[in-house]
Each structure stands twice: as structure tokens, then as C-alpha cells.
Design goal:
Largest interface: A-B, 110 and 110 residues
Radius of gyration of chain A: 30 Å
CATH architecture of the largest domain in chain A: 3-Layer(aba) Sandwich
Number of domains of chain A: 4
Strand order of the largest sheet of chain A: 1-19-21-22-18-14-17
Structural class of chain A: alpha/beta
CATH superfamily of the largest domain in chain A: MoaB/Mog-like domain
Mean pLDDT of chain A: 92
Low-confidence stretches of chain A: none
Helix content of chain A: 10-25%
Distance between the termini of chain A: 20 Å
Number of helices of chain A: 7
CATH class of the largest domain in chain A: Alpha Beta
Shape of chain A: elongated
Strand content of chain A: 25-35%
Oligomer: homodimer
Chain lengths: 415, 415
Amino acid sequence: MEHLKISSAQRIIFEAISTLDTEQVALEQSLWRVLAEDIYANRDLPPYDVSAMDGFAVHSRDLATLPVTLQIIEDIKAGDMPTLPLKTGQCSRIMTGAPMPQGADAVIRVEDTLELSADTVQMIVSVKSGHDVRPKGEQMHNGDVVLKAGAEITPGVIGILATVKAAKMQVYRRPSVAILSTGNELEAINAPPNPDKIPDSNTYALMAQVQALGIEPVLLGIARDDPAELEAFLKTGLEYDVLLVSGGTSVGVHDYVRPTIEKLGVSMKFWRVAMKPGHPLAFGVRHAASDALVFGLPGNPVSSMVCFEEFVAPALRCMMGHQRLFRRTVTARLAHAVKMRPGRTEFIRVQLTQDETGFIASSTGTQSSGVLLSMARADGLMVMPADCTGLAAGSQVTVQLLDGTAFQNDINFRE
Amino acid sequence: MEHLKISSAQRIIFEAISTLDTEQVALEQSLWRVLAEDIYANRDLPPYDVSAMDGFAVHSRDLATLPVTLQIIEDIKAGDMPTLPLKTGQCSRIMTGAPMPQGADAVIRVEDTLELSADTVQMIVSVKSGHDVRPKGEQMHNGDVVLKAGAEITPGVIGILATVKAAKMQVYRRPSVAILSTGNELEAINAPPNPDKIPDSNTYALMAQVQALGIEPVLLGIARDDPAELEAFLKTGLEYDVLLVSGGTSVGVHDYVRPTIEKLGVSMKFWRVAMKPGHPLAFGVRHAASDALVFGLPGNPVSSMVCFEEFVAPALRCMMGHQRLFRRTVTARLAHAVKMRPGRTEFIRVQLTQDETGFIASSTGTQSSGVLLSMARADGLMVMPADCTGLAAGSQVTVQLLDGTAFQNDINFRE
């Protein structure tokens, strides 16, 4: 069996997949989706010069000699249009966002004035022309492309979509995802406890990793090590865009997954990826009316979760049109020395703290891939390159953030 | 009007709020919620010593002299119990996760052996006792607290919950949130375009910021600057745990929000917070059978979004039981010089790139708080302390990550 580099395995996966088709969603359902169309401004915004502050619209040349008393000729609220042009010695009271009156070129904040009466105000500061005025079209000009296809719909993007009154928009479809666990040793969450069995955690950890990407997966359950049962489950799973199978891809002689899945028309590649925890990993495609992708993940819970982050999450995000496919990395200093047997890229579960110089990474404890608590406690995965034999306390390291859902364009770590 | 520090305003908010009551959710609906109960292990896991690899269960002392040929006496699959104890010179074929047979103390990986026949195998490496064996209880011991109340339910935590077969659990309730925009100048998303109006983007940007925290808000729409209309809207809004009102909290004379909201029994505090963009900000509580919190946010779209991140998001997360309330910060180097007028903490919208030394921050362009595109393009908010007069290119700065949803315990920037 081949021993692949992480980047090589990723490249094979990316070559086999493509962005899915598009669908229309309402603005209210669009958060974290990816735009599949360019979005244009449908007006100048602001539609005219407006005040950036609550205060008084003035002509700056009237403030050349201070203090000066001006006559207030009008009150302009946001949403009103001014009716009176300013003459020398005049000003209008104006609210933030309200249109500037004719003859005014600047705004004096209300805090910088002394109101003498209902219709006179003393100016005590001078300003340049344009001060605290938002010029027409500052935010956008009619016809501008304000958002390009491929943009992720963040809260700020939703603000822009609302600004151009895009109540619906085309986005890339999300893949349908099915999850299957395999193995006679597994006990379903609703099954009576049997001391000789192992509870099936992979189904749910993978479910949550998929949910964290905004996809609601279908849980197929547990397939026993029986060719007919496995075939029935796999057949169902291949009706989805992506099938995640955990367990059953090892080199052991009791493995029915490989022959069964190949019998169903899936062209599978089985790899040992040079990473720890991780290998073995399988990936395959069944080309049909709509392609089905299959990922075979290790049965070990930590390995399964790490493989998901390194291979499945980037693939699912790519299918949804994202440009940011990889977990956000940060640099950190190592809180303690770490020994390592070189040969495979190692992902060490770490907690992060901060001081004035940046992040400090410390191991979550045992790194046994059997101990899922190490993953539950982790803020990130510290990446130890394959040629590393160990690092001293204080060394600079790269950590993939696991908390929350921040992604970046490049994988940005050395294997 | 007071000029408050950001941290002072946050402290007043935190003193007025508390964690909400709890509710039961199913494991499938629990992602990113916060546990409101301790979770215990309900068995030893693994329930006995198991193999960590596919290979052969041996006694390490049989491998003292190499090579050595051992007799294979049994095949042990995961989910099976071994039936034959090993004698000297014997081994059993064993799968990952399968129980170790009596008389075995180590596992030799299948790759490190030469199979001579169906029932003999040659060992070519020696190992220590315990090698590639996961000891009974390595993952958890029966009765251990495996997760504490207050833990955020991440994918790793969901794996642990599934491991102890917690199909349902108590979590802190999410607040109900209503969003109201105010101002005659605003145009609803479904209203016909009027060139003299400004589209209401705040409702949707705030909606998305609330959704990003896992809460589906109720959108109340736009209240005109009319006391009766405003009162009716605010009354409805106060039926929710949290009401967000944007616009109408300025010092202008046309402001009906303050008197109307106080008339409805809300004890309001109005502040100018020493930040840019940002002020003015209002915060109030109406104590009743269930308390209602009101946040008055600036009408300006960028200011409203920044105030949400600094004040509303931490409050909502606190109510949901989170310990990590503040946006994740990273240190970055500034790509270009930045000038600043000291006096207020400034949040500059930046894009982040990376090189081998870490993050590089560069401005998204105009920092006018009228330009929402600067927010849509931002990866983060660079925090310029209030006493700063400017920074040279290459200076170390603190950036709050806006992409995705990563949070930390402390605010971790200097105001």
C-alpha cells in the first residue's frame, strides 16, 4: 500500500471533485453560503451628499473668523429633503444621514457648538470643506459590482446584499452527506449497554464536524461485518453526494468494505497517508448521473476526526464553492518540549493560551489516538513536520485552530 | 453624556445579565450549545486491554531472540472475545480494537511480520510489554466526570457524549432576540425603490451576526420616527429576552427612542463609548417576570456591526453559558503605516495574509464608517489603543478575527 503525503492525497481528492450546481436562497437563509452570481449596486449610495454626524450644515468659509453666530433656517431629519438653500451667515440643523442643503459644504458636530437660542447657534471651531460630509456614491455607485461570485456570505456581506435589496440570490448547493459506521464491536447509542462492546462515537463526532460546515448529514447507523448487510448500507449511502464510512478500511483480513464498495461501481484508492493519527484512509468516486464520493475513515475516533479535518472538510467546502478550504492556522510557541519519531506528519492536540507575544500551545495530555478526550479538550492541532525529531520548549510551531469555524485559502503548514 | 471605556461598558452589561435557564436537547441538536450538567463515564473504556493495531497479539518475552516463528492459534476480530490463551511460541491474529487474549502483553503490527503459512508467522522486530496495547480504561474509567457543566459542545465533545451514550443532555437555553431598525430614511427590502431613501441593511447584518451565534432572531422591521408607532414596535420587542434597536439613539433632537423606551419601564443607560467606529451606544434592562435587555446600536451600518461584536455578542454568549465570550485575537504585523488621532480605541477593518513569521494585516480600504464594504471584505478588526498616535509598517498589532466563529475567554487587547 502506498504511503502518501498529506498534500498528495489532498491533490488527488481535489482533482476528483468539482463545485456543485447552484440554487436560489433567501437572504435570511444565506449565511456562510457562497455566492454563485455577481451582485451589482442598484443606486448611488448615499444617493446625495449626506451628513456624517448630528450637528449643523454650514459653509466652511463662514467659519473663517471665530466665534461666529449663525442663523438656523431649517431642521433636516434623516429621510427628509432640505427645502431652503443656505445664504452667508446661515446654517441648518442636520441629523446623521440627512441630505446636505444647497449652499452647505461641511458639518459641525452639535458638541462643537453653543446653541444661543432656538434659531441661532455659535460656532467655535472651523473646518475644511467636506468635513463630516459623506459624499454621494461613497458607499457604492449605481452599476458597480459590489460582490463577486465566489464570495462567502458573511454578516458583512449580508449587510451589502440588503443594501442592494437582494432578497434572494444564487448560491452553490450544499452536498448531501451520509455517515456510516462499520464493525461488529460497535454499540448503537440507543442499544442496551453490553460490556463487551464499544459505543459508536464516530457517527456522532462526524455528524458534528459535518454540521459545523453547515450541512445536516443523514446517519445511516452501524453496518456489521457481514457482506450482505454492508452492501445494503453502502448502496443506500451511495445515493448521497458524499458517503463517509468509518472503520473497515484497514489492512486486516476481516475487511469486507473494500470488495463490497468496489462491487458497487466505486473506483477506490486506498492509502496509508504519512500522518499520525490518521492512516489508513480511502477515497473513491462512483461516476453516475450524479457522482458519489466515498471517504473511508479510520475506525479510531481521534484518527477519524483528524482525517475529516484534513481531507473531508476541504473537499466539502470546495464542493460548496468556498475558496477558503483549510482550517485557519496560527503560529504559537511551544510551552514544553516535544519528542517525536520522524517519518510521519504528526497532529498533536493542543490547548492555546495567550500572552503579549502571542499564542502558547500545550498538549492536551495523552496523545493516544484512542483517547477522544484529547480531541474534546483541544483548541487546535499542532502540526509537527515529518522530518522533525522533537522540539524544545519555546519553539515556534504552527497550529490549526479547531475552535469555531475559521478557514483560510492555503493549508499553510510544512508537512 | 458619559464617555466610557469599552471595558467599563462591558462590565456594566455583564453585571446586568445572567446565564439563562436550561433545557434538554438531543445530541443531534447540541452542537455549539453549552452543557448545563456534568457528564459521567458509564463504563471503563476500553472495557479490557485491546489491540491498537491490526497485527498479532504476542508475549514480548517470546521475541527476545529474532527472527522467531510463532504459531497462530486464533483470529480475534473487533467485537469478538478471544477463546484461547497464548502459550510460549504462540500468537493470535488480532484486529484494531479487539480484546487481547490471555497470555499476551503486546501487539506486533502486521507490516512488521512475515506470514509463512496460514498458521505460522515470522517475527522480525522485538517490542516492550504493552506495545500497541490500549489498556483497559485508557479512554475513561466508570464513574469519571468526563465533561463538566459549562463545556461548549464541540464536535470532539459530541464524540464523548456519544461514547457515554448521552442521547439527550441539559444545556443552557438560547435567548430569544428581536431586531428593530428605526428611522424615516430607511427603505424596507421589499419596498419599491425610492431614490431619496436608504435601504435598511442593519436589520439583516444584525440578523446574520445573531445567526452566527446559533440564534435565529425575529425581525420586527422598521419603525418610523413617530412616537406611537415606535412605542408599538418597542412593546413587541420587549417580549423577547433581548431587543436590538439600531438608529435613534443619537443626541439629535428628533430622537423618540429614549423617552419611548423609558416610558415602557426600561431603565436605560446611554453612553458615548470611547471607540471608533461605535458611539453612541445604549443599554437597558426591564425587570419583569422575565427580564428584557435592550441594546441601542448606532444607525450607521459599520458602527452597528462593530458594537454588536464588542458588546452584544459577548452578552448573548454569556446568557447561553459560554465561558469564551470575546472574538479570538491574533497578533499580526502591520503591512503599512497607520496614522491615528488619539482619544478613542479604533477598530480598523483589515484583511489578513500569512508568511512564515505569522499574520500580516492590511486595511480593507476606506475606514469611513459609512462604507459597509470595508466590513464585508474584512478578516478582522485591528485594535488601535486610544493613546496611539499612529504605527509604522511592521509594527505588531492585535486583530480580532471576524471570519467564522472563534471565541476566547478574555478580550485580550489594550484599549
